[in-house]
TrEMBL record:
Residues 67-218 form the Nudix hydrolase domain. Keywords: Hydrolase, Magnesium, Metal-binding, Mitochondrion, Nucleus, Transcription, Transcription regulation, Transit peptide. InterPro entries: bHLH_dom, DDP-like_NUDIX, HLH_DNA-bd_sf, NUDIX_hydrolase-like_dom_sf, NUDIX_hydrolase_CS, NUDIX_hydrolase_dom. PANTHER family: DIPHOSPHOINOSITOL POLYPHOSPHATE PHOSPHOHYDROLASE, NUDIX HYDROLASE DOMAIN-CONTAINING PROTEIN. This is Nudix hydrolase domain-containing protein. One of its GO terms (molecular function) is protein dimerization activity. Belongs to the Nudix hydrolase family. Its cofactor is Mg(2+). Gene3D superfamilies: Helix-loop-helix DNA-binding domain, Nucleoside Triphosphate Pyrophosphohydrolase.
């Protein structure tokens, strides 16, 4: 565990011990069994909170396909309802779609949540985890991927490796219908999130492969809308 995370955990543990000490002094008549049950419950809640507010680091469990690092991500989206539009209720379907993007750490450009697919999770679980860690959102993840794209990681773009797969990644992207936006999430301190319409997102998206994923997302959503209208 990184030193920074270790210190944070120690501070949380100290706060827990202080709370337990205060409880024993305020309610001296509580039974030993009840104290144990209460302590275990509180510890579980603290551990649960810590797991929500910490993101995975390192690549010890990273999946690879030959020399390609496997990545999973998603396009979080929501559909604006007619009643939420101020005046114009004739806005077409595309302009009712909004997608959520996040800033890159130490940069102001925008990307969709994505990260390494690890060997103790499915590709869908990885996409959901990255959405929560980077963007602080949860929702309904569509099981069929929008596609798979090969790209070079930003750390390897400047290298002159003869092997074209050096630093290469394969990114699986999914559509995530957002049902919950968290106020606190693991990477809140390093990222900002922003809702955009599809046109804005295409213009501001940092990576070309993510632009292609967004175009695929738009095609899927339009096809589904046309099918609904034809029923």
């Amino acid at each position: 565990m990184p030193a920074k995370n270790l210190m944070a955990e120690r501070r949380r543990r100290k706060k827990l011990n202080d709370r337990l000490y205060m409880l024993r002094s305020v309610v001296p008549s509580i039974s030993k069994h009840a104290k144990i049950v209460f302590s275990l419950t509180l510890i579980n809640k603290v551990n649960s909170s810590m797991s929500v507010l910490s993101s995975r680091t390192g690549r010890d469990r990273q999946r690879y396909d030959n020399n390609f690092r496997l990545v999973s991500g998603c396009i979080p989206y929501r559909l604006i309802k007619d009643k939420e539009l101020e005046e114009d209720t004739s806005v077409d379907f595309v302009n009712k779609l909004q997608v959520l993007m996040v800033s890159s750490p130490n940069r102001h450009d925008l990307v969709f949540p994505k990260g390494g697919w690890e060997n103790d999770e499915t590709v869908l679980e990885a996409a959901s985890r990255e959405a929560m860690e980077e963007a602080g959102v949860k929702g309904i993840l569509r099981e069929v991927p929008l596609g798979v794209w090969e790209f070079r990681s930003k750390s390897s773009i400047s290298t002159n490796a003869e092997d074209e797969s050096f630093g290469g990644c394969k990114g699986y992207m999914f559509a995530l219908e957002v049902t919950e936006e968290l106020q606190e999430w693991p990477e809140r301190g390093n990222r900002q999130r922003k809702w955009l319409n599809v046109k804005e997102a295409l213009e501001l998206c940092r990576y070309e492969w993510m632009q292609r994923a967004l175009e695929a997302f738009l095609r899927v959503m339009q096809e589904e809308e046309e099918e609904e209208e034809g029923k």
